[in-house]
Design brief:
A: 320 residues, mainly alpha, 15 helices, 0% strand, globular, B: 468 residues, alpha+beta, Dna Ligase, domain 1, 5-stranded mixed beta sheet, 24% strand, ATP-dep_Glu-Cys_Ligase-2 (chain A), Putative alpha-E superfamily protein (chain A), DUF403 (chain A), UCP005522 (chain B), Putative circularly permuted ATP-grasp superfamily protein (chain B)
Chain lengths: 320, 468
């Protein structure tokens, strides 16, 4: 397949997953603000969200103080925000349009419909839209596109590139979502383990659509270490870092097997190393190391794997 | 008086008899529902048309009219013979002018029009492409003025676009009105992509052994016809490449793939000559494939249409196509040319300038309905303005009478009304010369308008050929 086509498919996957992440982050934020978390009443936790998403500074420069309205605009509609739903959907759709020949008509149809309907939504007065509705809209369309891809695309190299994009982006997104908790401050140190602390963990579970799944898997009380275990190491959890990385591995292996020894597979080797490092830890070790430090390490490693994918397959390696 | 393709005198013509009943029984709310459905399908599959320099919505749709345009098989067979005849003559002309130039030696066409033509590529003189074919897809624009009166408005030998509309319009009609197709014998057009692939494979270069690898070369997704490029690649199951995906190594062209370089044998290019190879044509071009022309000249790759094919579809050369048919084929032209005044000729110039209010004046190299004057539809100021442009550069213009384009029934606000149409069939030239029974019918949706270009308020229709 053309290197350029592979690149568009890879980034299409990443952008679709990223659009969903933006929506999920907003959902976390909106739920946290419903919780009175200071003795004085409500406190602004939007800042935490922006820090986890890695764009606090860009936001501050454009909007100043973070409010629900400004954040909603920024996360959903702002085309200057590279991670907004608008930007991601537009890029995914543009990429899809460029490689139309590599998509089934069902997959393209779903992707294009998502984009066209977003444009309709965009033109509606902001007052008529609320966060829950925007989040549902995004997740609904993300799921439709994902379903169309899963049920109709040929299981060829294009399939691997698309899903590799999805998987790497999802691994990154779950890590960032967990990191929100690091930035959301508890009022005082004795709140650790309190109802408020538990509530915040619960919100993260909900945002990852993992609330009920968690209860099936663990039962009992929601504790920090159980939630973190579920989202980092549990292989049954569909969005856990380990599951996502295992899926990425699967697709890297698919490519390596398909292309044979003539084509470099450094990305696969790198992913293998990271997965190994993940498996050598348990959740206590991760908390001892510091959750935030661990997540930062992981996010960095996902970046390295992504770079290796570029070097192996997407760069048009063979120069004339 | 305009020829009405549905009504002759007080009778409904045979091709339209069944549509006439259909129209009569269709409730207007059903029509509106179907129209909305058609538009939503078009938008969802992503057929949109962006016009350069017009701004606005890049995803604008070309309006689709649900009322088909219909030919009887007997009418079509004659058109088919005429179109194929013309395509053969144009290719013979190209073979000749890049070779010995017999037609010029025989003084049947002025030397200046050929060798001094901007579209004449000196870089390919003496290069004979496989099977001697230069123009592999010939789009012939036709208008009808009477029952048996068809005129060729222009020839498109380079990269005629619009065939995706022919195919998609049909898909949509079949999806929306299956009953019409069940009760009528409408000849299918869906063989086109396969025929195109066979045509392209049949002109693989000498050095190609085994199955030829065919690709489509597009300027990229910002091009207004990108949808079509991608659609055709998909239908044929071949790669859609941009210049940067290709490179030359030694005597072959390769594309960059995830598995390393892959050799390319036939390039169906949808870019202009000047953007093919910066080493050969435009040095400032960032597009194109450096070294491509060397490989082409040495028979390492085929390019469709061949570089230089444009010299045959110039509006000045157009006037000589009937001569070409007689000269190369020894036949009388089946399709007529429109009478054309060439403004670089003294007498023609005088005549045209004194009859601007009756004539259509076009730029020799213009396209898309731009840079033209439609005398009878223009104000005195517009005519005066255009006169200055002609006076400044007469050699750049030709003039033709305003043709009485035929009309077809078309859905409009108030119901069904006649609107003017033209027709572009797509003729394929490779090992064989092929024409699928259909084409792109464009319709001027504004009442009285004779301009069918999509950039100027035109729409499209499905085109049917009924088996008898």
């Amino acid at each position: 397949m053309l290197s350029r086509t592979a690149s568009h498919l890879f980034w299409m996957g990443r952008h679709l997953e990223r659009a969903e992440t933006a929506a999920r982050l907003m959902d976390v934020g909106a739920r946290i603000t419903l919780m009175p978390n200071t003795p004085e009443g409500y406190r602004n936790e939007w800042q935490a969200l922006l820090q986890a998403a890695g764009n606090a500074q860009a936001f501050a420069e454009r909007y100043g103080e973070a409010t629900q309205d400004s954040l909603e605009t920024y996360m959903f509609f702002d085309r200057d925000n590279p991670s907004s739903v608008a930007t991601c959907l537009e890029k995914a759709r543009e990429g899809g349009r460029i490689v139309r020949t590599a998509l089934t008509s069902q997959a393209w149809d779903a992707l294009n419909t998502a984009y066209q309907e977003f444009r309709v939504l965009e033109r509606r007065p902001r007052g008529s839209l609320d966060t829950a509705m925007l989040t549902d809209f995004t997740m609904h369309h993300a799921a439709t596109v994902r379903g169309a891809i899963a049920s109709t695309q040929l299981r060829n190299d294009g399939w691997h590139f698309m899903n590799l994009g999805y998987a790497l982006e999802r691994a990154d997104a779950t890590a960032r979502m967990l990191d929100v908790k690091y930035f959301v401050l508890l009022p005082r140190v004795e709140f650790v383990g309190s109802g408020l602390d538990t509530y915040q963990w619960q919100v993260i579970l909900r945002a990852l659509s993992a609330h009920r799944a968690f209860h099936w898997a663990y039962g009992g009380d929601i504790t920090a270490s159980k939630v973190a275990d579920f989202l980092i190491l549990n292989l049954e959890s569909p969005r856990s870092m380990r599951t996502s990385l295992t899926e990425a591995m699967h697709h890297l292996e698919g490519l390596a097997n398909r292309y044979g020894p003539g084509v470099p597979d450094n990305a696969r080797a790198k992913a293998q190393d990271v997965l190994q490092a993940l498996l050598e830890r348990d959740i206590e070790a991760i908390f001892d190391e510091g959750l935030h430090e661990f997540l930062s390490w992981f996010i960095g490693e996902i970046g390295s794997i992504s770079n290796a994918v570029y070097d192996d397959y997407l760069s048009g390696r063979m120069e004339a | 008086m305009y020829y009405n393709e549905m009504i002759e005198g007080s009778d409904v013509r045979e091709p339209y008899s069944m549509l006439f009943d259909w129209m009569g029984t269709m409730p207007s709310d059903l029509r509106q529902m179907k129209q909305a459905e058609a538009e939503s399908i078009f938008r969802r599959i992503g057929i949109t048309f962006a016009v350069y320099g017009e701004g606005g919505d890049p995803d604008r749709l070309i309006p689709f009219d649900m009322m088909p345009r219909v030919f009887m098989q007997s009418e079509w067979r004659r058109l088919e013979r005429g179109v194929k005849q013309r395509a053969r003559a144009l290719n013979a002309f190209l073979r000749d002018v890049y070779g010995r130039g017999e037609i010029i030696r025989a003084r049947r066409i002025p030397e200046r029009l050929v060798y001094q033509n901007d579209a004449f590529e000196k870089a390919v003189v003496g290069v004979v492409p496989p099977r001697g074919v230069y123009s592999h897809i010939v789009g012939i624009d036709l208008v009808r003025t009477g029952r048996d009166e068809f005129y060729v408005l222009e020839d498109n030998c380079r990269t005629p676009s619009g065939v995706s509309y022919m195919l998609e319009n049909r898909e949509i009609m079949m999806r929306m009105f299956p009953a019409l197709f069940r009760s009528n014998k409408i000849e299918p057009v869906d063989a086109y992509p396969e025929l195109l692939r066979q045509t392209l494979a049949s002109v693989a270069p000498r050095k190609c052994d085994g199955d030829p690898t065919v690709v489509i070369l597009t300027p990229g997704h910002f091009n207004s016809a990108y949808y079509e490029h991608s659609f055709l690649a998909n239908q044929m199951g071949i790669e859609l490449v941009e210049g940067s995906d290709l490179f030359v190594d030694g005597e072959y062209v390769y594309m960059r793939t995830t598995e390393g370089p892959k050799r390319v044998d036939v390039i169906y290019r949808r870019v202009d000559d000047s953007f093919l190879d910066p080493l050969c044509f435009r040095r400032d071009s960032m597009l194109g494939v450096p070294g491509l022309m060397d490989v082409y000249r040495a028979g390492g790759v085929s390019i469709a249409s061949a570089p230089g094919a444009g010299v045959a579809d110039d509006k000045a050369v157009y006037t000589y196509v009937p001569e070409m048919i007689r000269f190369y084929l020894g036949e009388e032209p089946i399709l007529k040319n429109v009478q054309t005044w060439s403004l670089w000729k003294e007498d023609d110039y005088k005549y045209v300038l004194s009859h601007l209010d009756e004539l259509v004046v076009k730029e020799v190299h213009g396209s898309g309905g731009y840079g033209m004057l439609i005398g009878p539809k223009s104000t005195a100021e517009e005519i005066a303005e255009f006169r200055k442009r002609i006076e400044a550069n007469p050699g750049n213009y030709i003039a033709q009478p305003t043709l009485a384009l035929s009309t077809c029934p078309t859905f409009v606000e108030e119901g069904v009304a006649p609107r003017h149409v033209d027709l572009r069939p797509f003729c394929l030239c490779g090992e064989r010369v092929e024409l699928v029974p259909g084409g792109l019918t464009r319709v001027a949706l504004r009442e009285g308008s004779l301009v069918v270009n999509s950039s100027q308020g035109g729409g499209v229709k499905d085109t049917w050929v009924l088996s008898e």
